[in-house]
Amino acid sequence: MDYLKGLNEPQREAVQHIDGPLMIIAGAGSGKTRVLTYRTAYLIEKGVDPFQILLLTFTNKAAGEMRQRIENAVGNDGKNLWMGTFHSVFAKILRFDGKHLGYTSDFSIYDTDDSKSLIRAIVKERGLDDKVYKANVIYNRISGAKNRLIGPDEYLNNSVIAADDTAAKLPEMGKLYKLYTLRCFQANAMDFDDLLYNTNILFRDHPAVLDKYQRKFKYIMVDEFQDTNISQYLIVKKLSELSKNLCVVGDDAQSIYAFRGASIDNILNLEKDYPNMATIKLEQNYRSTKNIVEAANSIIAKNKNQLKKKVFTENEVGSLIELIKASSDNEEGRLIATHLFESKMAHGLRNTDFAILYRTNAQSRAFEESLRKLNIKYRIIGGLSFYQRREVKDLLAYFRFVVNQKDEEAFKRIINLPKRGIGDTTIAKIAVTASENQISVWEVVSNIKQFQAGRFADTIEGFADLIKSFKIMVEVNKKDAYEVAAHIAKASGLLRELHEDKTVEGLSRYENVQELLNSIKQFVDDNEVEEEDKSLSSFLQTVSLLTTADSDDPDGDNDRVTLMTIHGAKGLEFNHVYVVGMEEDLFPSQMMLQSRADLEEERRLFYVAITRAEKKLMMSYAESRYQYGRLKPCEPSRFLDEIDPQYLQFAKNIRRPEEKPAPQGFVRMTNREQKAPDFGTSNKPTSTASLIAKPAARPVVGNTYIPSQDFVPSDTKNLVEGDRVEHLKFGFGKVKKIDINGTDRKAVIQFEGTIGEKTLLLSFAKLRIL
DNA sequence: CCGCTCCGCAACGAT
DNA sequence: TGCGGAGCGG
Predict the structure, then answer these.
(1) CB proximity A625–strand B (7 Å threshold)
(2) Long-range contacts of A10-17 (CB under 8 A, 24+ apart)
(3) Closest residue by Cα to the C1' atom of nucleotide B8?
(4) Which of A227, A237, A762, A766 would bridge A711 by S-S if both were Cys, CB 3.0 to 4.6 A apart?
């Protein structure tokens, strides 16, 4: 147990506290993963059977990495641990015991696309307007209900919900929910939320099953506990009811998934449910410099909902955080890429030492282009994952249908793929025949000649025979996943179709399918132990819950700059980090600022972003950016205005670059006077308080604040007193006074009519000069 | 039924 | 801009 020596006091305590409920509050960079790894190793060394340990993580990637580290510590015993994401672990349980709820072990997992497609179909069948009943909205409402454990019947009978739906002009919501659930069930399919919801139902209604797992899992650990929702919490609670050996690790300051039901309340619930729970705080940060840790602390210091803890570090003070200002997103990209290149050369770093973090995936474009121009290799995490590409999903749909013929969404995908002349009309006929005879679609298709002698009977029979031959391979000949998959790819004609497509996309599609087959081969080779584990069905189980976890390039060329969203960056660390697009409406996101709680979440997100950096942190923003191919002006730097100057003064660790000749077209942020721009805040704060005290709603104090979308793009740099201007919202006016302070330009404008005089901040074009 | 064109609309996050 | 869905002619 040498490793215990390398731990600090609270860490060691956390590792050795193995009996009874335990909550570990772990600040960013405090060695959380280490503690979990060692704690698991410690358990095993203390004689706990790895089969009795359940370790729940937040992402597949985290699970994989942690398993590796545990295996390094304890050897092959680590293989026998139950560990994975909530979804994957409970999917496994439902494979075993879903039969109690009427599912077979081959049930399909519907991804979001499948779910939405099913919803669209139902909405259409019911003759509802799909402009009103948008699949997205319906899906989110259903998802929300399931995550709160509200089933369709309860939903229908709940008057509060009904009133809410009526108010949202969606009175049919409840019925849709019910129908959707029914159709999923008939398809022997579960969506992501069902995996949790059904596990709850399973444990609620089948005590014997619950008892089995309660006895099995003597020790349960939950990582990223702050991101669990009620549904997940209840499962964990039930499972640990017997043993009481529940250990959760989390950091309320990094709770950034409230939008999908995660709730800090779970921590409070936990304290209530386990009154004798021990709490250990890990407060020493080993990752970042003092400057970074302090800056991060200051961001969340005044959040209302938080557990008290003080993250500190004994690392060096480090260099200041650097602010970079650009005039457009392209320029932002150029600046960051250049900056990155220069620091790489200056400090002898590798590409992997850098990360560029943004708020939304759509922002990646400018950085990709700039990095490419400088020949800097990069990789993008997130975005369209490999398993979401069309051609990959098509082939997977074949697999799904071969394994589970009730899978309606898979059926719809493949029945006419490759083109075999079976269109909507024919599919509709099949569906009608199926429901008239009260049988499944597959039963109609596989016996098509009994029902129809139409023009397409032969084609359909051919399709059915194809599927049947695949089924025989799987069920009778017990071929492994790779053999079946390769055969299906060929025999279905999918591969040939893609091969014949000589366009660039066609080529990459073909490669993707090959890649998929490769990964299946690898899957088979990795699972040599049991025959069961090599089946197509078992491959599907693994794969339907994978998303962004695609592995790095197989070429071994892994020295790449990482581009990802801040959400995706959780749990990672990089030497140098760029947090980009820190401007109004983007970060904090406009949508998020609807409520106060959400503002707090944006701050936590900011906190997460900052604390990814070990040595150096850069923040940048642009005055305008392209959106939908159009240059869209935005009100820049409002977020920075919020944290600046108060935040800067506090943290004393942000450096605005010294004035030097600006590269073409680029305006460096100047050392402006430390005077708070007085728009937005009337009470001038001297500390970080104002960052927090500012209400989330659009503030109008003294001056009028105008949302950026109301501005006409024009160059206000040319604005002079006496100019006649037009403003989209206020109409015509005359510039009375211009106040230039650094790059901040304010204008007092006397508008015509009854509006009167307004003071407008002119950091970007907002007015048309007439 | 297929394929082409036009149109509308798009927003974050992860399993 | 760029995608997917709808609608229409062949």
Answers:
(1) no
(2) A10/A280, A10/A281, A10/A282, A10/A283, A11/A35, A11/A38, A11/A282, A13/A280, A14/A39, A14/A280, A14/A282, A15/A39, A15/A42, A16/A42, A17/A247, A17/A278, A17/A280
(3) A131
(4) A766
Q: What is the rounded distance in angstroms from the CA atom of residue A16 to the CA atom of residue A544? A: 36
Q: For A723-736, write each residue's pLDDT tens digit.
A: 787 665 566 778 88
d(CA A372, CA A374): 5
C1'-nearest nucleotide to the CA of A567? B13
Find the length of chain A.
770
Instruction: State the pTM of this model.
Output: 0.79
User: Measuring CA to CA, which residue among A573, A549, A612, A574 is closest to residue A63?
Assistant: A549
**A668 pLDDT above the threshold of 70:** no
* Residue that wins the pLDDT comparison between A637 and A256: A256
Q: Could you read off the pLDDT of A731-758 as tens digits, one per residue?
A: 677 888 776 654 445 677 777 766 667 6
Distance between CA atoms of residues A601 and A300, nearest Å: 9
Question: What is the per-residue pLDDT across A81-106, written as a single tens digit (0 to 9) for each?
Answer: 888 889 989 999 999 999 999 999 98
Neighbours of A129 (CB within 10 A): 8
- CA A343 to C1' C4, in angstroms, rounded, equals 43
- The CB density around residue A511, as the number of other CB atoms within 10 Å, is 12
Residues of A identified as active-site:
32-33, 223-224, 254, 612
